[in-house]
Design a protein that fits this description.
heterodimer, A: 746 residues, alpha/beta, Rossmann fold, 3 domains, four-stranded antiparallel beta sheet, 25 helices, 10% strand, elongated, B: 189 residues, mainly alpha, 3-methyladenine DNA Glycosylase II, Chain A, domain 3, Alpha-Beta Plaits, two-stranded antiparallel sheet, 5 helices, 7% strand
């Protein structure tokens, strides 16, 4: 007996043994008795904009009017899949809406409120005939398919234009019309009603791929569809040679891409690769219809056939549902009988997921809405321990070892699960179906898969971070080296250009600096005997002298004022100096004990003994305190205004001026003035505090000149505290005044 | 007598031969660097955050190879600590820092408040912040490791560490509050 080639066997209709699989109750007769119906227009349509922000941009904005079939997104990426308006109306919102996804997480969606007219976009034209597109190039056709936003309608929603543009030559094209999952009859009904259109679509794909063989695979539980397709095939442009319809025995999940290839060719798609690498392309039958609409009519993928079925619906059947129709609208239109707690399942009973929120829309991949009542579902059963019966391994269509996967997934040993080819699991649910212990095996695999995915993602991220870190470290090091080299070069250049006289000049300058330093050192030693053993006093006196000197040089006016009191009070310079030094030392001691803010008042208190009682009574008497505050403010103001340190010699006399006091007192009366004054005083107090140490020193210099030494010695430590209290009160008052004015203003 | 002599000679020759062989192999198949450090580094999360006290993940891996404790990597969490313990051949020990709930965070710059001081750019160990002097900065979220190092230098405190948002793309079945059950059907038609 001669060995037949693969193609000869295919032509003979040979089928290979499928691996695993189950025979769940089909329940298809529920929905395949009526023709495909349409729904009325919904209140709003929610079109998910999945790719916006990644590979595409919005083509519309809120408030725009769109016609049916108008483009909503635009992109140039080769994987870009545009979405279109399912009806005419206004774009009311572009916002996050619950998604039709197992997670139910919100995704960016375009909400369209229909105007009810369902006006077609002008781009959509009357259908062209096959001869019209004969001259078109493959690129043109692929562009049409991409522009129509066609995705695989079997459920995975993979962009069709990518699949139809494979890198390798295609020998076999398989049209998948298996529809093996229970309940679903969308493809069945579409084949019965639109067989000619489907064949046109298949012809377009055939033209694009030029395969040697074409198989339309239909499960043998759809005899009507098989017959219709046979007739349509005979009428169509498709070549008679190498094209056949193969009836495949009913078995779940023979509709899986890899499983179907196994059944029809006996070849196994290697793990991790795609069928195109074997020269095979599999297309869903509903996609063929959409391709025909797109290429011949420019009609984008804006509606699809959805099976609405289950015991909880009063009108089970198939419906043309626009993409973006809220599922709640479909439910009300088809007579949903269930209550709040009944499940709405997207997809079939084997691979579908329960919906969280029925305001989620129908998307391109949703082929079925299963509305089971409580009797249809297996009751929630408790998971029992695995008994190692091995049933799951026998039904697994991917030839995996579900038990082993389960053990490792449960133990979170994901790397071991990966070694058992976790990635090849198609999540068909056969193992769960047969498990006598009611273990939700697929759940475990999904969790394991997502954990593996996350881990891989993290690893990639870590690798990227490491690379970037290393590059950065390298860059910083290079920069540093470059800088150092540059500096070195510059220094060398300087050295080389420097003449000998310059060098001498530098040496001379260095010598001068040294000499100066030495002189300064000897100076300090000579002044030491002036003051007694107290070193601090000595330093203070030196500073005082230096400052006086500077003041005299800098400002002749101020120096005049400064020299006057000194002349009046003491003729002897040296004596005054010593006194100043002593005062300075004392003031410093006082300042160390007290806060710096007190310093401006300190001088005031120490200058005039009359002020002292004022300070004592301040906390008791309001008015007096106010006066004190005013004085403080005024002083602060003066300090700030004069700014220069030399001016402080005048200050002490000014502060004693009675005119200042009423000014301060009247301030709170006037609202605005008070507010300004308060703000200014606060700011000034702050400034004064900063300057305190310096201002303080000059006040002190003048102070001892006016009064005798004796009260001075006693006064600072005692009065210091009182003065501080006075200032604090003043500040508080200023604050209060400001608050008051503010509240009044309000 | 000569038998013993021959035996001794033979063994000596053999020892010599093997010695030379081993010496040659050691030279020929010499391993550059410490492979343990590379393996340890591969386990670390590469945030380069310096929370371990070392300037980056590589220095910490080197320190572990030299006997440093394995529990100083808060971004890695206890999972990383266990792997490190396994690799370094020491007993696992609880993390030194209090381990927070492991939510991945990423830096975000409040762009209105950014004054363009470039301080965060200098602090970022993975060059994930884009910007220029006196111009607004922003974080390239794909590159951000969530190391926290940019938060402290910001003079206007405009950097927030926000948890990575859950989207359909990074959604995890584990977090599914209502488990989706694959439905089995009992009734026969």
């Amino acid at each position: 007996m001669p060995v037949l080639t693969l193609f000869e066997q295919i032509d003979k209709g040979t089928l290979w043994r499928s691996i695993g699989g189950i025979h769940p109750p089909e329940r298809k007769s529920l929905s395949n008795r009526t023709s495909i119906a349409s729904l009325t227009i919904a209140d709003e349509y929610i079109v998910p904009l999945n790719q916006v922000g990644e590979s595409s941009v919005l083509a519309i904005s809120e408030g725009d009017y769109v016609t049916k079939g108008m483009l909503l997104t635009r992109g140039t990426h080769f994987g870009h899949l545009p979405v279109h308006a399912p009806t005419s109306g206004h774009v009311t919102k572009i916002e996050q809406r619950p998604s039709n996804h197992a997670s139910g997480l919100p995704v960016l969606s375009c909400v369209i409120t229909p105007d009810g007219r369902d006006t077609l976009s002008p781009d959509i034209h009357a259908p062209l005939s096959w001869s019209d597109i004969a001259a078109w190039s493959n690129e043109e056709i692929l562009k049409k398919i991409q522009d129509a936003g066609i995705a695989g309608l079997g459920g995975a929603a993979f962009p069709t234009h990518i699949k139809l543009n494979p890198a390798s030559d295609i020998e076999l094209l398989i049209i998948n019309a298996i529809e093996c999952e229970p309940y679903i009859t969308a493809d069945d009904m579409l084949m019965r009603e639109q067989s000619d259109a489907i064949c046109l679509g298949i012809a377009i794909i055939h033209r694009l791929l030029q395969p040697k063989r074409l198989i339309i695979a239909i499960e043998d539980n759809k005899p009507d569809a098989i017959e219709e397709m046979h007739h349509a095939l005979n009428r169509s442009q498709l070549p008679k040679e190498g094209v056949r319809i193969t009836s495949v025995p009913t078995l779940y999940p023979s509709g899986g891409e890899k499983q179907l290839i196994q059944i029809l060719t006996g070849e196994e798609v290697p793990s991790g690769s795609i069928p195109a690498q074997l020269g095979i392309v599999v297309q869903n039958v509903a996609t063929c219809y959409a391709i025909k609409e797109a290429v011949l009519r420019s009609y984008p993928l804006i509606e699809r056939v959805v099976t609405v079925t289950g015991n909880n619906t009063s009108n089970p059947g198939n419906y043309w549902v626009p993409i973006g129709t809220p599922i709640s609208h479909v439910l009300t239109q088809t007579g949903f009988r269930g209550n709040e707690t009944d499940k709405v399942i997207i997809g079939g009973p084997m691979m579908g997921y329960a919906l969280y929120n029925d305001s989620a829309p129908i998307i391109k991949g949703s082929n079925c809405l299963l509305l089971p009542d409580s009797k249809e579902l297996a009751p929630e059963q408790k998971e029992l321990p695995c008994v190692r019966c091995g049933e799951c391994a026998q039904v697994c269509p991917a030839q995996l070892l579900p038990q082993q996967l389960f053990w490792h997934a449960k133990a979170k040993e994901y790397d071991k699960a990966v070694n058992f080819n976790l990635a090849d699991c198609i999540e068909c649910g056969c193992c769960t179906y047969v498990c006598p212990s009611n273990i939700p095996l697929v759940e475990y695999y999904r969790i394991a898969k997502s954990a593996v995915k996350t881990e891989a993602e993290e690893k990639k991220q870590a690798e990227l971070a490491k690379q970037r870190f290393e590059l950065r470290t390298q860059r910083l090091e290079d920069e540093r080296l470059a800088r150092e080299a540059k500096q070195k070069e510059a220094a060398e250049r300087r050295k080389s250009t420097m003449s000998s006289t310059d060098k001498d000049a530098v040496a001379e300058a260095m010598a001068r600096i040294k000499a100066k330093k030495a002189a300064a050192g000897s100076n300090a030693s000579t002044t030491a005997p002036d003051a007694p053993d107290n070193k601090r006093k000595d330093v203070a006196a030196a500073i005082a002298r230096a400052k006086a000197n500077k003041a005299a040089q800098n400002n002749p006016d101020a120096s005049a004022g400064h020299s006057q009191p000194s002349e009046v009070n003491s003729g002897d310079d040296k004596k005054a100096q010593i006194a100043a030094a002593v005062a300075r030392a004392k003031a410093k001691k006082a300042a160390q004990q007290g806060s710096k803010t007190a310093s401006s008042d300190e001088s005031n208190v120490s200058v005039d003994p009359i002020d002292t009682p004022e300070g004592v009574t301040a906390p008791i008497d309001d008015k007096k305190a106010k006066i004190a505050a005013a004085v403080a403010r005024a002083k602060a103001k003066k300090v700030a205004q004069q700014g220069s340190k030399i001016a402080s010699s005048d200050e002490s006399t000014v502060s004693l001026d009675p005119i200042d006091t009423p000014e301060g007192v009247t301030a709170p009366i006037d609202d605005k003035k008070a507010k300004i004054a308060a703000a200014v005083s606060r700011a000034k107090a702050k400034k004064a505090a900063q300057q305190a140490s310096e201002a303080d020193s000059f006040d002190e210099i003048v102070a001892p000149v006016k009064t005798s030494d004796a009260p001075q010695e006693v006064a600072p430590p005692v009065d210091d505290k009182k003065a501080r209290i006075a200032v604090a009160i003043a500040k508080a008052k200023a604050k209060k005044a400001m608050l008051k004015t503010e509240s009044e203003k309000e | 007598m000569s038998g013993i002599f021959i035996a001794i000679m033979l063994l000596t020759l053999l020892a010599l031969l093997f010695g030379i062989l081993l010496g040659f192999a050691a030279e020929k198949f010499k391993v550059e660097g410490d492979p343990l450090v590379d393996q340890l580094e591969a386990l670390l999360p590469q945030t380069q955050c310096g929370q371990c006290g070392y300037p980056g993940c590589r220095p910490y891996a080197e320190a572990i190879a030299n006997g440093e404790k394995i529990n100083k990597c808060p971004p890695g969490g206890s999972a990383t600590m266990e792997k490190l313990a396994d690799m370094a051949g020491v007993e696992p020990e609880p993390l030194s820092a209090t381990e927070e709930v492991q939510v991945k965070k990423i830096a975000y710059i409040r762009e209105d408040e950014c004054i363009g001081c470039t301080k965060c750019i200098q602090a970022c160990p993975v060059d994930a912040i884009l910007g220029s002097g006196k111009l607004m900065h922003t974080v390239i979220t794909d590159y951000c490791t969530g190391c926290d190092l940019c938060v402290a230098p910001c003079p206007v405190d405009c950097i927030d560490m926000l948890p990575v948002e859950q989207t359909v793309k990074n959604w995890d079945w584990k977090l599914n509050a209502i488990p989706v059950k694959i439905l089995d059907e009992e009734c026969q038609c």
